[in-house]
Design goal:
Udp-n-acetylmuramoylalanyl-d-glutamate--2,6- Diaminopimelate Ligase, Chain: A, domain 1; 2 domains
Length: 311
């Protein structure tokens, strides 16, 4: 099971440590934060204790209004479950009692000045990405016309050279050689680099290139949602598919189905241009447009006239 440390959360969001500064190596394994509500009135049947606990204005105001003994009971019940950490939002103050209980139970108590709903959305997104199941595959990942493309093929087939051409046409590199795929949901696959290969593109006979240094920031992007899987293969004339519209095929990555096509290579063929065409055509299809359907509508009158003349 993947995990991150509480101190990683502190660094990412510049959180203030109010208690438990010697417990920042505690691990977080759940991708969603939780706001305890029913738990403050003693209902713990479904308490997700492994989640980061967020306390906003409503929760803190409720605690402020309790008597000393009641507050001790309510907070004591929750801290006894030892969640990874508590985070108080909106820069709320008057937390001496909460600080004391967290110190006693060795639980980090953190604070941010950000508003609760904005902060929770940011933290949930960060945790979802950080804790998402992932695999590493051999290939190249690019953002072409705003579309995440996974480019695969045998070693030496020309993936990186094709990526270089696409970068020269204004598209963006995500990762070369090793692509990290993260499953954010049953329908969402994110492509990114592994940090080591960030911004680098390897070209045979040329060597390693830093695309940002060569072509500027617009040549690189940290991550992209994968929408299309393209495999570069050797030319096989007998296998060419010349239908008006190719039947959709799919490639499965960790249970996420990605539309898949193959592009055959031949000297002189504009592979980068074909990838641009595939990306733009896919975008049009998502908007409900089909070139094949429009073409058939155009020739339908001619076909009807031809049928009448035979009669």
């Amino acid at each position: 099971m993947k995990s991150i440390l509480v101190e990683s959360l502190i660094r990412r969001f510049s959180l203030e440590v109010l208690a438990g500064d010697n417990q920042l190596q505690r691990t977080i394994t759940k991708s969603q934060t939780y706001r305890p509500g029913l738990e403050f009135i003693g209902y713990f049947d479904f308490f997700p204790m492994e989640h980061v606990q967020v306390l906003g204005e409503k929760e803190i105001t409720y605690l402020h209004n309790l008597s000393h003994d009641e507050r001790k009971l309510r907070i004591g019940n929750i801290v006894s479950y030892h969640p990874p950490c508590f985070i108080v939002t909106d820069g709320l103050e008057g937390l001496q009692y909460l600080t004391r209980y967290c110190e006693e139970e060795k639980i980090p108590l953190l604070r941010t000045n950000e508003r609760e709903y904005e902060f929770v959305a940011k933290v949930d997104a960060f945790l979802t990405k950080s804790l998402a199941p992932e695999i590493a595959i051999h290939g190249v990942c690019l953002n072409v016309s705003g579309l995440g493309i996974l480019l695969r093929g045998n070693s030496g087939v020309g993936k990186s050279e094709t990526a270089h051409t696409l970068i020269g046409r204004g598209h963006r590199l995500i990762a070369d050689d090793i692509v990290v795929l993260k499953k954010l949901s049953p329908e969402t696959l994110l492509g990114t680099h592994n940090d080591t290969n960030r911004e680098f593109l390897a070209l045979r006979s040329i060597g390693l290139l830093n695309v940002v240094r060569l072509y500027g920031r617009k040549a690189f992007q940290e991550e992209t949602r994968i929408a299309l899987d393209i495999k570069l293969t050797k030319w096989q004339g007998s296998a060419l598919n010349n239908e008006l519209e190719v039947e959709p095929d799919y490639k499965d990555y960790m249970g996420v189905r990605i539309p898949h096509i193959e592009i055959q290579l031949q000297p002189g063929r504009d592979v980068a241009g074909l990838i641009e065409a595939a990306a733009n055509n896919w975008l049009l299809m998502q908007q409900g447009y089909s070139a094949a359907e429009e073409f058939l509508k155009r020739i339908e009158p001619e076909m009807n006239d031809s049928g009448k003349s035979k009669c």
